[in-house]
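Sat 14:20. Reprocessing the chain from the morning session after the first attempt stalled halfway. Input below, unchanged.
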Amino acid sequence: AIPARRLFLAHEDDARRERKGREDLDARRAALRSVELLAPLQDHELDLLAVGLTRAPFAAGEVVTKQGDVTGDLFILTQGAAEVWVSGEGAESKVADLVAPAFFGEMSLMTGEPRAATVLATTALECYRLESTAFQAILEERPEVVNELSQRLAERRVQLLAARE
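Finished this time. Tokens:
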């Protein structure tokens, strides 16, 4: 057999670029709406966050976040599966399985505390990453939403602590 290659060309006109941009923004909005923690936010606030999302793919076996890291980003899992591991007292234990659609990193996003767990990709992952600076801008604009978000965060923290035990 002779080695062969295929090359596909697509005509990029303004209409196609505009359509692709709308589809991408719609996918980002849908990802944000799948995060129950963000339910108190209004549509225009979600739109502001959608513009700031960055795509974050991970390969199977790759560490997405590591316990103890000091980063405040929220990850929105749109495709794939991952495991959540917690280290403590010389032992590691799996505390949760995440399957898309899911999210993680909300505690660091809201509090700025180091990561409470390690997230490991078990399959190829497609994620969006929301940086804490974009989220903080929304909270500064509408501080009354902090109480509701804090309540949801406390519920997730209790679930994590229960899973640890």
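The first strand starts at residue 54 and ends at 58.
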